[in-house]
Amino acid sequence: TNKIQKALDNEQKFFSFEYFPPKTDQGVVNLYERIERMTRLNPLFAAVTWGAGGATAERTLEICSLCQGIYGLESLMHLTCTNMDQAMIDSALKSAKDSGIQNILALRGDAPHGDEFWTPTDNKFVHAVDLVRYIRQQYGDYFCIGVAGYPEGHTENPDKDQDFKYLQEKVDAGADFIITQLFYDVPKFLEWYRKCRGEGGIDVPIIPGIMPIQNYQSFRRLTFLTKVEVPGSLLESLDPIKSDDKAVKDFGVEYAVKMIREIFDSGIDGVHITTLNLESTARRVLLELGLSDSSISRPQVVLDKGSGLLSS
Ligand code: FAD
Question: What ipTM was predicted for this assembly?
Fold first, then answer.
C-alpha cells in the first residue's frame, strides 16, 4: 500500500507540504509547476486543502490525484464534513479511491462564510469524529486517516481538557495520525505534545503544523483568527521590520528554522509545512535545515491540457 502511515513508521526525519487549490485555471497550472519542482525536495507527502462546503472539490481531487499518480508523491486529501451533504462526502471518497488516493485528513470544517454560528447540513456529521467513523465503516482500512489537533485548544471550546478528550476520541475512532494547528510558541507545543504521549495515551504520529511567516499582515490576521499565542519576543523582532516585506520573509525563514530545530531536538521526526502555495520560503527553510535531498530523482513530468489532468 501507499499509505502515509507506512512511511511514518520509518523514524527518519521528514517534512510534508500543504497546498490549497487555486481559483483559476492559470493558477492551477502555476501550482503544478511549483509542485513538480518542490517534489524534487523530497517531501513525504503533499496535502491539499478542501474548500468550505466542497467549493474546491474537483480541484482538490485533481491536484491530489496528480501528485499521487503522476509525481509518485503520496497525497493527503483534506475533507470536511459539516458544511455539505452526505452525497458529496460519498462522491469525494469514491473519487479519491478511484484515483488511488489513500490518505484523508478528516475535518469538521467551518461555516462557509465565516459566520460565527452555523448549523450542520446533515445531522449525521456534526464533528470530525463522525467523519472518521463513517470512513472506517464504509471503507475499512483502505484509507489512512489523519485528524486535526490543537495544541493551544480549538477556538470554539474554552474547555481545553474537554477539547483534548475529543482529540482522543478521534484517535479511538480510528485516526492514524494527527496534524496540528499552526503555532509559534514551541515550549507550549511541546508541553501539549508530552501530554498527548503521557497521560493522554495518544500513540499515533503527531505532525506539528508549521506556517513560516511570509507576510506581516497575513501573519497577524491568522494568529488573530486562530487565537494562537504569539511570543512577545517574536512580536518585538517583527515590529521594526513589519513594513519591509523582504526582511519579514527573511525573518520568517530564520524563525521557522529555529522552531523546527527545537522540534527535532525534542525527538519529533517530522513537520508539516503550510506553503501558501509559495516555493521560496519552504525551499530556503529546508535547505538551511539540510533536509532536502536533491539526490533523489523524481520523474519529470510535462503537463499540458491534453493530459486530462487539468480542468478545462
Ligand atoms: P472537530 O474535531 O470536530 O472539533 C471542532 C470543535 O468541536 C472543537 O471545539 C471541539 O472541542 C468540539 N468537539 C469535537 N468533538 C466533539 C464532540 N464529540 N462533542 C462535542 N464537541 C466536540 N478547514 C477547511 O475548511 N478545509 C481544510 O482543508 C482545513 N484543513 C485544516 C488542516 C489542519 C491541520 C487544521 C488544524 C485545520 C484545518 N481546517 C480546515 C480548519 C478546521 O476545519 C477548523 O479548525 C474546524 O473549526 C474544526 O475542525 P476539526 O476537524 O478540528 O473539528
Answer: 0.99
